[in-house]
Amino acid sequence: MNRRHLAALGGAAILVATKPAAAQSADERAVAAAVEALTRAMLNPERAALEALAHDALSYGHSAGRIETKEQFVAVLVERRNPFGEITISNQTISVVGEDAIVRHSFVGHTTGGGKITPVNIGVLQMWKKQGTTWRLLARQAFRL
Description:
Structural class: alpha+beta
Number of strands: 6
Order of helices and strands: HHEEHEEEE
Strand order of the largest sheet: 2-1-6-5-4-3
Helix content: 25-40%
């Protein structure tokens, strides 16, 4: 076996090894779109959009330790109790494992509740669950950076 044979085998091995990743890339793109839709819905909260993105069993954890159900999460945003004025997501990673996806990112922005601007600078771990063809937020935990 010469170098050309080894190179050809190596190239074939890479193609075979990346085929499952290519299949997952569509799911990764769909999860990224769901995260983006959630961010937009948090900035401009509409009940229908938030309910469509959140799993019925949602556990939504804040960096201060407060945990909300789906109903509480939606109500807080829709009632504009502590509205977001800005949200920037960065350093995002997405890992799809079957019907589940793990998303990590940095979340920077501010809220405008009580007439004052409060900066937000947190890390976030999200767990998304695929239901049919739709990705829904199942769990979220924020932590202070």
